[in-house]
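Q: I'm writing a short methods note and want an example of a predicted protein-small molecule complex. Could you take the sequence and the SMILES for glutathione and return the bound structure as tokens? Please keep the output block clean; save any remarks for afterwards.
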Amino acid sequence: MKAQFPTEQSDSGEFQRQEDAFREWISADGSTSYPAVAGRYHLYVSLACPWASRTVIFRKLKGLKDAIGMTIVDPIRDDKGWAFRDPDKKWDDAEVIPLSTDPVNGFHFLSQAYAATDPNFDGRVTVPVLWDKETKKIVNNCEDDICRMFNDAFNAVAQNKDVDLFPKDIEDEHRNLSDFLYDNVNNGVYNAGFATRQRPYEISCRILFEALDQLEARLSASLY
Ligand SMILES: N[C@@H](CCC(=O)N[C@@H](CS)C(=O)NCC(=O)O)C(=O)O
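A: Understood, no commentary inside the block.
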């Protein structure tokens, strides 16, 4: 099969995910050049993306809606990548929804945020993206980093500062489960969906469905 993402493909047909390009850190104690203040950062997400959805959940549970704005990209993605369109207009076969502009930067496409941050960026444009309105650049496009910053750095401006979604007493178990979900389910879907040869496809499918069986067993005995 022809690779959908040729630069993320091994010779033997496995999907090999690109590294996240932007990993700057927002801090509450001035230890980085990105202070955790209200109104400065903006989250771009797709609700179709499991990684982005995790950042949406963190923003909600920590009570960061007033402090950190959010824009949802259109769920339909063509070869120009994630785009901004009127969320009230629904796609159907007869209609092409015109582009709208995002409220922060006037972008039509999320790729414009990547190009503004690094004009030489030639990777895949992904959500979630945490944007800095002051430097007009992406601070971070790694979901786990964004969740950790939402949890730890913004407590001075969070409505639910006592909600701790990375509790220290279960840190190791949390990390193991999170890695398991990332590798076998979130990225497991990619490994299966973007394999270009039959054998890696079958191996990836088996890993994914075995992981779902394990989660089924876990969730039948525990809420989490
Ligand atoms: N490295 C990202 C992964 C995010 C990711 O893979 N997002 C997908 C949606 S689930 C995406 O934006 N894909 C766009 C594309 O492939 O063009 C993270 O951990 O936050």
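A: Remarks, as requested: The chain has two domains: 1-162, 169-221. The helical segments are 50-61, 111-117, 143-152, 171-193, 198-221.
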